[in-house]
Amino acid sequence: MDEIKRLTLPLSQEVIDSLRAGDKVELTGVIYTGRDAAHKRLVELLKNNQPLPIDVNGGGIYYVGPTPAKPGRAIGSCGPTSSYRMDPFVEPLLKQGLKVMIGKGPRSKELRELLKQYHAVYLSAIGGAAAAISESVTKCDLICYEDLGAEAIYRLEVKGFFGIVTYDTVGNDLFDEGIKKYKKI
Amino acid sequence: MREIKVSLIEEKVEQMLLDACENIPENVLCRLRRAKEEEESSLGQEVIQRIIDNDLLAREKHLPICQDTGVVVCFVEVGYDVHFDGDLYEAINRGVEKAYVGGYLRKSVVRHPLDRVNTKNNTPAIVHVKLVPGDKVKIEVAPKGGGSENMSLVKMLIPADGVEGVKKLVLDTVFNGGGKPCPPVIVGIGLGGNLEKSALLAKESLMREIDDVNPDPILANLEKELYEEINKLGVGPMGFGGSVTCLAVKINAYPCHIASLPVAINIQCHAARHKSCIL
């Protein structure tokens, strides 16, 4: 197993720019959850020149809708959801300073260009490894949009949260590189 | 006539869903272990190992394998000689509600595709009932996640497209899905019937055991060919590149119109959860 970079959130621009597709990281600090319905609301707020309920400046959003926490646990199972569905909402958040997105699966070409433009990164968590991922969340607090259930926005404190840098700030794409290497037909 | 209490159906549905969401079937786990040996990419191997570790942890600590505990798909075979003492569909939905609300599972159903208000109890289930000879009831439940379902499709090919057209459609669909449906996946294919029948066949094919062999030699051969070709696509575990993109291919078929060759492709993620019981 390659070396894992242990990083503390929020990441400095220098650290973000130094990450390369394929790097394995373990994150410690605060990230916010958000998926389809929450993103729609966040972007509507920005359209109406209203403040966001979370500080994304320099921060990260994890695309996840967890299961309810069982007694004695900080959070339920919490693996990533497919990131491409959030692509239409990303640019206004990048303008607010969003730097790290965590999810799973490939995203649009436009999104990859935006990451270069705004110097932000996309990390993958392991899809379906939701019980294991919950072990790296130490605290989970509801921030807003409780009516959305699992789609509400939560503030997560994470410790050693595993991710793989997938799109970096210079346009490298781990999916394209990997698939080219192993494609035989 | 045999009387079956719907309260028993409710109880069984609840139990099976709780079981399915936390306990990966042993044959899926075995298949994942073999996949790790077969995978050529070291990152791919690590991804599969993390998936296996997750599935074991979920089992040990009674946690859902995946946060997407799905929309409940329920296949019920009802013997002609069975009488229920109440509403079968309501009983199934009560079982779903009990499992999801009481069992710390995620509620992933919205009441309308456009207004998108969460029903907060994961109902309604999608229920398919079939009448069969006898006085038994077979219930099969599958919590089906959205990520892999979104990478599925139905296409009406024409007879001239033939088996090559079917194969091309399957390979293109799996390749275009890339890492989105959480590979390594199981590819369920419905061939023939008509528009809705093909989709149902594809879903039914995913209810088969991962290690079974198709009794139809033509389909068994096509499953094998597609399995080998899909694993040459290079998508790999979670789409990071590799030689294990699918764990299995399942094809169910039905007669069809002389003008048509309907093909449905239903993708199942590696968390292949389903349970069944016979009453």
Offer a quick outline of the entry.
Chain A is α/β, with parallel strands linked by helices and 185 residues long.
Account of the 3D structure:
The complex is a heterodimer of chains A (185) and B (279). Chain A is α/β, with parallel strands linked by helices. Chain A has one domain: Fe-S hydro-lyase, tartrate dehydratase beta-type, catalytic domain (fumarase), CATH 3.20.130.10. Chain A has helices at 13-18, 36-47, 90-95, 109-118, 130-134, 174-182; strands at 4-8, 24-33, 60-62, 100-103, 121-124, 137-144, 153-167. A five-stranded mixed beta barrel of chain A has the order 2-3-4-5-7. The model of chain A has no long low-confidence stretch (mean pLDDT 96). Chain B has 279 residues and is an alpha/beta fold. Chain B has two domains: 2-20 and 65-144; 147-272, no CATH class. Helix content of chain B is 39%, strand content 24%. Chain B is built from eight helices and ten strands. In chain B, the strands form three sheets. Chain B has a four-stranded mixed beta sheet with strand order 4-2-5-10. In chain B, helix 1 runs parallel beside helix 4 and helix 2 (26-38) runs antiparallel to helix 3 (42-61). The longest helix of chain B has 20 residues, at 42-61. At the A-B interface, helix 5 and helix 6 of A face helix 3 of B.
